[in-house]
Amino acid sequence: MELIKELPDVFEEFAEQRQKSFLAIKELKDRGVPVVGTFCTYFPVEIAMAMGAATVSLCSTSDETIPAAEKDLPKNLCPLIKSSYGFAATKKCPFFYFSDLVVGETTCDGKKKMYEYLGQFKDVFTMELPNRQTKDGLTLWKNEIIRFKEYLEQKFHVAITEEQIRNAVKIQNEGRVALKRLYELMRLDPAPMTGQELFSVLYGSTFKPDRSKIPGEVNAIADRVEKEYAEGKMLEKKPRILVTGCPIGGATEKVIKAIEDNGGVVVTFENCGGAKSVDRLVEEDAEDIYEAIAKRYLSIGCSVMTPNPNRIELLGRLIDEYQVDGVVEMILQACHTYNVESLGIRRFVNDEKHKPYISVETDYSQADIGQLNTRIAAFIEML
Ligand code: BJ8
C-alpha cells in the first residue's frame, strides 16, 4: 500500500523549515541573540550553542545567485561554492544577512579561498581543519576549537563555561539520536516512507535555529511513521538505493526525485545532511570535553580527508544495515575531492560489497533532468 504520493503535512512542515526560519532568525536577532552562520558539517556547533547563539546553515543550494558569483569567481568552480558566495554578495540569504559571524573551515581548496572573499561582507572566522585524522591532526583541531571559543568570548563579550558546553553537547546529541531513530526506520523492508520525505526532515532540521526543539519534533514524526507502519501503511517493495557523494539539498534534490520517479526508494543518505553528519555522538562524560568534541568532528568521513577510511566504514555499514540494492553517487561539477575519490568508492561498492554503483555528475541547473532520469532509470531497471 502506498503511504505517500504527496508529502503529508508532517513532512511538509519540515520541508518548509528553511522559509519558516527566516522569520525566526529575525525575531531572535531583534531580541539580541547572536546569530552564527555555517556552511559545513565540521562546524562544532556546540561551542556557539554554549554561549546562547542561534546557529543556522547558510544558503548554498540554488543556482539563483550563481551568475552574480561568476562576476567575481571562476565559472568552473563547484556550484555550492559559487552559490554560497552569490547569496552573500547579493544579500539574498536572510540567514547570511542576519548573521553576526560566519564560520568556515579549511576543507576543500575552492571553499577555503572563497571564505577569504566572504570577509568583505561579514566577519568570518576560519577554522584550520587538518586534512588527516591523526594524533597530531586531533591536537590541532582541538586547539582550533578552543581558539574558536576564545574568539566568541572576545567578540561577544561573554564567558563560555565548560558546563554550558557540556549542556550544548547533550542537546545536540539528543537531536542526533532522534534523527538517527527516524532514518533507521528505513531499515524496514518495504520502506515506511519515501527518501524525499525522510530528506525533508534531515535537511529541514539544519535550518532550525533552536536545536533543543529537534528531539521532540523528530521523535513525534518517528512515532507516527512507526504507528502507521504497524497499521500496514508502507511503500510497495522497490529497489533500495543508498545515496552518497557531495551534500544534497535544494536544487540537487532532483537526484532523489529522479531515483524515486524511476521506481527506486532512497533508504539511506551517506552524504552530509544524512548519516555523515549525524552518525557519531560526542562522548558526554569525557574528562576533556574539548577533545571529545574534536574527536567527534574530526572523524567525519569527508573526501577532504586523506586517506578517508571513515567514509568507507560508514558506507559499508549502511549498505549492510539497509539491505541496499544499489549505490548512487552524486558529484557536483568541479568538486575534485569527491570526483577523485569516486574511483575508490566504486571499487569498494562493486568489489567488496558486490553491489551496483553509478555516479552522476551534476550542477544546480535543472537542464540535465532528462539525462538524469534516463541514466538512473536504466540503473534501477538492472537491479
Ligand atoms: S564535511 S562534504 S559540508 S566539506 S562539493 S564545497 S567539497 S568542491 S561541501 Fe562539504 Fe563539509 Fe565535506 Fe560535508 Fe568543496 Fe566539493 Fe564543493 Fe564541497
TrEMBL record:
Its required cofactor(s), as named, are: [4Fe-4S] cluster
Q: Which domain of life is it from?
A: Bacteria
* UniProt keywords, alphabetically: Iron, Iron-sulfur, Metal-binding
An example Gene Ontology molecular-function term: hydro-lyase activity
Protein family (similarity comment): Belongs to the FldB/FldC dehydratase alpha/beta subunit family.
Q: Which protein are we looking at? A: 2-hydroxyacyl-CoA dehydratase
The source organism is: Sellimonas intestinalis
